[in-house]
Amino acid sequence: MTTPFDVAVLVGSLRKGSITRRAALALMAASPASLKCRMVEVDMPLYNEDIETSPPHAWTRFRGEMASADAVLFATPEYNRSLPASLKNAVDVGSRPYGKGVWNAKPGGIVSVSPGKIGAMGANMALRQTLVFVDVPVMQQPEAYISGAADLFGEDGTVKNAETEKFIRDYMAAFAKWVEKLAQRTG
Fold first, then answer.
1. 144: helix, strand or coil
2. Would residue 104 count as lying in a domain?
3. Which residues have C-beta within 8 Å of that of residue 125, sequence separation ≥ 6?
4. Which of left, alpha, beta for 157 (phi over 0: left; psi -120 to 50: alpha)?
5. Using alpha carbons only, what angle is made at residue 45 by residues 41 and 51, rounded to the nearest 5 degrees?
6. Is residue 187 part of a domain?
7. I need a surface site. Which of 28, 42, 62, 115 has the fewest CB within 10 A?
8. pTM listed for this prediction
9. How many domains, the chain?
């Protein structure tokens, strides 16, 4: 059997009871055997080039965890029609020092999650725009905008209805194909 692709899962919500984290747990549980998903925490100091000569431990930890990943899956809420600062900061920290970033050509996926009706579409699009510059080829189809998410996931990431469960399983199957097509194994 082939070794599964290592997928770093980044959750943009830092809140303890995060709906987005619940959705990420559901995505991870629905992953096909060809993917090994692990959560990489994005709670770290804001990027500041002035301290790059002696970077905080959280930056070096994040960069190390991301460097070993074959692919990345972003789970994002929407804050003020855009992505949360924690995810933008993670992209920035991972893109530095210049020329030594961790993103280069890692296949990516984005799942945006909202308790509201539009499924965090603004965050999804803003994150896509940012990832183009750091060379993360993001899966285009199927798109994943999960609305009404507060009623869809249990505290442990269990999915509460068959329609959502099928959507997540289908999304992760498509993501696995995307990763298999594009990933350049690091190990």
1. strand
2. yes
3. none
4. left
5. 130
6. no
7. 115
8. 0.96
9. 1
